[in-house]
Amino acid sequence: MRMGPAHQAARSGDACAAATPFCPGEDATRLLDTLRAHIARLEQGHAQFERQKTRAQPWLTGLAEIDRHFPTQGLQRSGLHDVSPRAYGDQPAAMGFALALALRRLSDPQERRPLLWCRLAAHEREHGRLYGHGLERLGLPRHRFVTITLKKPASLLWTMEEALKSGAVAAVLGDAEAAHADLTTTRRLSLAAAAGKCAAILTFARPDATATASHTRWTAGAVPSSSPAHDTGAPGAPCWNIELTRARGGRPGAWTLEWHHAQSRFSLVPGFSRRAIHPGTDQDGPETTRQGPALRAG
After folding, report:
1. How many CB atoms lie within 10 A of CB 45?
2. What CA–CA distance (Å, rounded) separates 267 from 177?
3. What are phi and psi for residue 124, nearest 5 degrees?
4. Kind of pairing, strands 115-120 and 171-176?
5. Which of 90, 100, 37 is nearest to 66 (CA)?
6. CA nearest 202: which of 165, 170, 175?
7. Is residue 290 classed exposed, middle or buried when 0-12, 13-18 and 19+ CB atoms within 10 A define those classes?
8. Within-domain flag for 207
9. CATH number at residue 278
10. Which 3-state string (H, E, C) describes the chain?
11. Is residue 23 part of a domain?
C-alpha cells in the first residue's frame, strides 16, 4: 500500500504537521485558555446566526441581573435546558421554576402553540400530580397545555423526542432520571428541539444529575416566601433559590426569585435574610426589607 507524506513522516519518527502532539511537560494553562476562547467564539457566532434567522422575541427572564448572564440571544429557543433540585424534596420547586421559564416562552405574542408536560408515574406518587387550579394560579391556562403520565423513563424520553420533532408544541417539560437521561439521550432531545423549533426542559428528581447536552443547567430550591401586606396569614408568591450552573456562551450566577403570575415575570427578593445574595433589591419600589411571617412556597 502506498503511503502518503504524513504516514511516511510518522513512520520515520518526524512530527506530523497536521496534528501536533501535546507534551505533558508544557504549560497547559495557555492551551486551555486558547481552547476556551475558540469555543466561546464559535458559540457567539452560532448565537448571532440564530438571532438573524428568527424574528421571534428573545427568550429572557425579564430581569437584567439574570439576562446579562445569557448569550446575546438569551435562552436557546430551540434547544434543551434542565433544572435539578437543590436537595432531596425540592423537585416540586424545580418543576415550578421550569414552568415559569416555559411561561416566559409562552408569553411571546407570536407563540400560539401549547405546552406538553410529560410526567413519570413514580414521581407523581412521590411528589403529587399536576393540579389544574394550581397551574392556573401560576399563570398557565388550561387550554395551553397537555399532560401525559408514563411508567417507564425510556417511554417518556421517546414521547418528548417525538413531540419536539413534530413542532406542534412550543415547549415540552418532562421528568428525568439521571440513569436514563445521559449525554447521548439528551443530545437526541436537543437535536429534536432544534428540528421542531421548540424548547425542552428536563426536571431531574435528585440533585446528582449526570452530564447532559443542555444549553443551560439550573438548580432550584424552595425558600420561605413573605405574606402579602393585606393578609399576613396568606402564603406569598412562589419563591426559589436559583443557581445557573452552566450556560453556553454565558456565565453562572445565583439569585433568589419570586414569580408573579399576573405579569408572568420574575423579581428579585429584597432583604433576603437566610442567604443575602442581593439584599435590599426591589424592582418595584425603593430599597426596603419586607417583614412578615415566613411560609414555604414553590
Report:
1. 11
2. 30
3. -65, -40
4. parallel
5. 100
6. 175
7. middle
8. yes
9. 3.40.50.300
10. CCCCHHHHHHHHCCCCCCCCCCCCCCCHHHHHHHHHHHHHHHHHHHHHHHHHHCCCCCECCCCHHHHCCCCCCEECCCCEEEEEECCCCCHHHHHHHHHHHHHHHHCCCCCCCCEEEEEEHHHHHHHCCCCHHHHHHHCCCHHHEEEEEECCHHHHHHHHHHHHHHCCCCEEEEEECCCCCCHHHHHHHHHHHHHHCCEEEEEECCCCCCCCCCCEEEEEEECEEECCCCCCCCCCCCEEEEEEEEECCCCCEEEEEEEECCCCEEEECCCCCCCCCCCCCCCCCCCCCCCCCEEECC
11. no
How many Cα atoms within 13 Å fall on the side-chain side of residue 6?
Answer: 5
In a domain, 24, yes or no: no
Query: What is the pTM assigned to this prediction?
Result: 0.73
Q: What is the average pLDDT across 60-71?
A: 93
pLDDT, tens digit, for every residue of 100-118? 999 999 988 889 999 999 9
Angle 183-196/153-166 helices, nearest 10 degrees?
20
Could you tell me the three cell numbers for 39?
469555543
Rg (CA), the chain: 22
Question: How many domains are there within the chain?
Answer: 1
Closest CA to 243 of 86, 76, 68, 77: 86
Terminal Cα-to-Cα distance of the chain (whole angstroms): 68
Whether residue 260 is contained in a domain is answered as: yes
221-246 pLDDT, tens per residue? 998 887 777 777 777 888 999 999 99
Give the residue numbers spanning the domain of 86.
Answer: 57-296
Let me know how long the chain is.
298
User: Residue 250 has which C-alpha cell?
Assistant: 454565558
